[in-house]
Amino acid sequence: MLKEIINLTLLQHTIRTATPLILAALGGLLTQHAGILNIGMEGMILLGAFFGVVGSYFFGSSLAGTLLAVAVGIVVGLLFAYFVIDLKSDEFIIGIAINMLAGGLTIFLLRSIFGVKGAFSSPDIVPLPRFSVGFLEGIPLLDTLFNNHTVFVYVSWLLVALIYVYLYKTPHGIWLRAAGEFPDALETAGVSPRKMKYISSILCGVFCGFAGVHLSLGYLTLFTENMSANRGFIAMAAIIFGGAHPVKTFIAALMFGFFDALGIRLQVVGIPSQFTQMIPYLGTIVVLFIVAKNLLRKKKKAIEGESYNE
Amino acid sequence: MKKKNIEYLISLFLSIFAALVIGAFIMWANGRNPIVGFAALIKGAIGSKYNIATTLAKTVPLILTGLATSISFRSGIFNIGGEGQLYLGAFGAALVGISLVNLPGLVGIPLALLVSAIAGGLYALLPAILKVRYNIDEVIVTIMLNTVAVLLTGYLVNYPFASDVGKLGATEVIGEGYQLSRLVRLSTLNTSIFYVIVITIIMYYLLERTSIGYEIKMIGQNPDFSRYGGINVKRRMIFAMVVSGVLCGIAGAFEVLGVHYRFLQHISPGYAWDGMLIALIVKNNPLGVVLMSLFFGALKTGSISMENATGIPSELIAVIQSIIILFIAGEAGFKSKIKGFFARKDGRKKVGEKNA
Amino acid sequence: MAEKLIELKNITKKFPGVLANDSINLDIEKGEIHAIVGENGAGKSTLMKILYGLYQPTSGQIYFKGQPVEIKSPLDAIKLGIGMVHQHFMLVPSFTVAENIVLGVEPRKSKIFADYNKAVKITEELSREYSLKVDPHAKVESLSVGIQQRIEILKVLHKGADIIILDEPTAVLTPQETEELFRVIRRLVDKLGKTVIIITHKLQEVLALSDRVSVMRQGKMVGTLMTKDANERILAEMMVGREVLFEDLEKKEVARKEVLRAENLQARDNRGLLALKGVSFSLYSGEILGIAGVEGNGQSELLEVLAGLRQVEKGTITINGNEAANKDPLEIRELGLSHIPEDRLSTGLSVEATITENMLLGSHRKEPYAKRGIHLNRKKIRERTDRLIKEYDVRTPSQDVVAGNLSGGNMQKMVIAREFSFDSDILIIAQPTRGVDIGAIEFIHKEIIQKRNEGAAILLVSADLDEIFRLSDRIITIYEGQITGEFLSKEITKNEIGLYMTGKHKDLSQGGA
Question: Which residues of A touch C272 (CB under 8 A)?
Answer without folding.
Answer: 299, 302-303, 306
